[in-house]
User: Which sequence fits this backbone?
């Protein structure tokens, strides 16, 4: 194919568009997908080689890639899938500020749910009662700082990276299978359709057991997909989610969608997606449906908070996980103080200070690969990350931190933020010197804004 024949899109999309046609073989745990991605050249210079992240391919043989080609073209493209990184060679360079559409045809086997301690492991997995596809598809790698971002998988935290994108999905499921996914839903028999704009990831879950309960609050539909044995807990879960959305909308900014789905999974933990949160079945255990002194309520609120910190305000979950996880945990604390003030001290003691959870040690600003195990990661990022934000709140005042977080949310909505952006937002609302506080929690040198560092030499203006 000659250079002049590279089929460019007439219009350059504002962000990548993913279109999925999925056939789900639920009984065998197999997904067949035909996928199209429309995207602009992200590099600012001509590129002839593209990189994609393929998370399920971390398991050798799990993914079978049948075809890669430019949309509408007869000839397949040369490609190489090594580990979780797919490299595709274009027949001619893609010019800057131009866009193309690519298609992929692939099949993958959803792995059986593994037993993990702490936080980590596959977010695409199946158990006895359901199947979850989290980061399951071929994702255009972000292009940052002059290179493709293709981090290696580690079994700690969220080892995924992706750009904001629009998503359209058609999922053909067997008779009797209920699908739950992010976005606006319509259904024609066994065909489930979803439209999810401006989101970090399109995820879905499936089960033949789900019971579906829903409420509406503030113009948003909250829908709970739950196993029969836990159906009686739906009201508590739905009310916690709805109240969390109401609080975080007031504190930070609006929830971005018309629907929020909460789905019970066979995992042992909670997991955030865009417009969808997963809650592991083990988390439901022992809750009687009343009160807030239980992991089910706290986890629901935590994952809801990620709709602000992860989904709308993007950050680097691999290299700076504190930016979304500590803020989600801080949002939990605010929820308890707002709605369950009598339980806020219990929450702090149980989740943050409890000696049973191990020593409170570890710098909060490391990459996930720098923590030796999941427990060290949780102790540093979730527990000490919360303590850092709460100490910061004591130092500058609740009103000031509220204003800074609202500013941070508004100024970085649908963008990628880093810790400099966080401290810049804070500096727009206070001149409190926080150098000693930062030194106590961060391992790496932090160049604070001058307003937060007493105009120390080398500070950021």
Assistant:
């Amino acid at each position: 194919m000659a250079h002049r024949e590279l089929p460019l899109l007439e219009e350059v999309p504002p962000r990548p568009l993913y279109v999925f046609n999925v056939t789900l073989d639920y009984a065998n745990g197999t997904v067949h997908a035909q996928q199209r991605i429309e995207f602009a050249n992200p590099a600012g210079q001509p590129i002839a080689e593209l990189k994609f992240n393929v998370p399920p391919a971390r398991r050798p043989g799990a993914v079978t890639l049948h075809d890669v080609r430019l949309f509408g073209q007869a000839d397949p493209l040369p490609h190489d899938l090594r580990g979780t990184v797919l490299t595709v060679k274009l027949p001619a360079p893609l010019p800057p500020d131009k866009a193309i559409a690519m298609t992929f045809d692939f099949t993958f086997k959803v792995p059986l749910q593994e037993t993990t301690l702490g936080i980590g492991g596959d977010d695409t997995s199946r158990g006895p009662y359901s199947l979850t596809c989290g980061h399951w598809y071929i994702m255009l790698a972000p292009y940052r700082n002059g290179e493709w971002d293709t981090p290696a998988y580690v079994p700690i935290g969220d080892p995924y990276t992706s750009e904001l994108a629009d998503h359209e999905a058609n999922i053909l499921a067997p008779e009797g299978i209920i699908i739950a996914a992010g976005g606006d839903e319509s259904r024609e028999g066994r065909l489930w359709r979803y439209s999810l704009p401006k989101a970090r990831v399109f995820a879905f879950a499936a089960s033949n057991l789900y019971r579906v309960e829903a409420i509406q609050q503030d113009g948003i539909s909250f829908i709970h997909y739950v196993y029969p044995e836990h159906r009686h807990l739906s009201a508590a879960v739905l009310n916690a989610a709805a109240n969390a959305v109401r609080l975080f909308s007031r504190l930070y900014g609006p929830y971005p969608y018309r629907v929020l789905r909460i789905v019970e999974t066979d995992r042992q933990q909670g997991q955030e997606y865009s417009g969808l949160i997963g809650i592991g079945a083990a988390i439901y255990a022992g809750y009687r449906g009343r009160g807030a002194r239980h992991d089910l309520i706290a986890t629901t609120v935590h994952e809801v908070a990620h709709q602000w910190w992860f989904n709308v305000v993007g950050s680097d979950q691999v290299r700076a996980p504190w930016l979304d996880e500590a803020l989600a945990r801080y949002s939990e604390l605010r929820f308890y103080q707002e709605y369950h003030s009598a339980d806020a001290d219990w929450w702090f003691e149980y989740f943050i200070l409890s000696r049973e959870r191990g020593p409170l040690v570890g710098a909060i600003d490391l990459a996930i690969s720098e923590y030796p195990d999941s427990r060290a990661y949780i102790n540093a990022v979730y527990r000490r990350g919360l303590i850092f934000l709460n100490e910061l709140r004591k130092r500058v005042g609740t009103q000031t931190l509220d204003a800074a977080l609202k500013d941070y949310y508004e100024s970085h909505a649908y963008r990628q933020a880093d810790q400099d952006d966080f401290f810049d937002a804070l500096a727009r609302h206070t001149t409190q010197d926080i150098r000693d506080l930062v030194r106590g929690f961060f391992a790496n040198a932090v160049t604070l804004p001058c307003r937060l560092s007493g105009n120390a030499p080398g500070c950021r203006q």
Summary: The first strand starts at residue 17 and ends at 25.
